[in-house]
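Notes from the 1:1 (GR / supervisor)

We went over the backlog. Supervisor wanted to see one worked example end to end before approving the batch request, so GR pasted a single chain during the call. The sequence is below; no edits were made to it. Supervisor asked that the structure be written out right there so they could see what the output format looks like.
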Amino acid sequence: MPPQFFTSTTVPANGDENPYGVAFVPEGFPSFGTIDAGDLLISNFNNSSNQQGTGTTIVKITRDNKPVTFFQGSGLGLTTALGVLRAGFVVVGSTPTTDGTSATVMPGTLLVLDRTGNVVAQWTPAMAKIDGPWDLTIFDRGSVAKIFVSNVLSGTVVRLDVFIDGNGVHLVRATQVASGYLTRTDPNALVVGPTGLVYDPQRDVLYVASTGDNEIFAVFGAGTSRHDGGKGVVIYADNAHLRGPLALALGPNGDLFTSNGDAVNTDPTHPSEIVEFTPQGRFVAQLSIDPGTGGAFGLAFSQPVDRFVRFAAVDDNTNSVTVWRLPSGGN
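Structure output shown during the call:
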């Protein structure tokens, strides 16, 4: 039997387009807000005129195809850098432009929102060593967390050590743990640089999807190091299947999943693909989510519930997200 799935528009009431970030609200998230455990959040990068770097909304996806606006700001350009802390906070990155082109792209900020969508902290480049926060991953331990952020403008990755209490999320230290990834502007993608991140706390290794390099790297010791580890070690280089890898996620079977943005090594016969591969660098499978190129971007797995997980992947060609229900023991 094929897996169950549904597809929803990601366009909110203000018309924002180009969904980038995808995050499930984890189990244990506090009640009495406007989002709850199990909800799916999507961040939008473009405004209603489809200008890149001008989207201002995070939406909660509902099965009735009517996204609910969880947060709306101004002058933001919300990126794939979207994550949720189970203590009750949402972290999202902003890489704004003033006119939708790379000529006006700015370093941006990281915003911390409470569970009703209010901004409770704003971390600047000077505070958090960010420069175009493009994606993030969180190692969440409740009262403390490590937030890894990829910077698309500088080609670096930083680790933010934070503690969380009833008053909010407090930045303790920002450490640059990786650098040297290829970056460039792009007329279609706006900017190209390091994107997707996955952290394995058991091995203390951070996996980095470098779009411009068309490779996946492993940075060892990223969770504890006080030093820059460079690009790390290449674990997956596959021109037959990688076409500018963007988001990165760890599946319930231990494999890694990345989305091809098609800004690099483009092949119109293999558009908008999600690629599955092992941490040892062996190709497993691929799936096209759109007949045109450039549709794949953010993706995420939920926590297992009743032996099933949900897998969400956006299609920013159609401004939609598809959510599959999969057995938690495998694909």
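Supervisor's comment: The chain has a mean pLDDT of 96.
Batch request approved.
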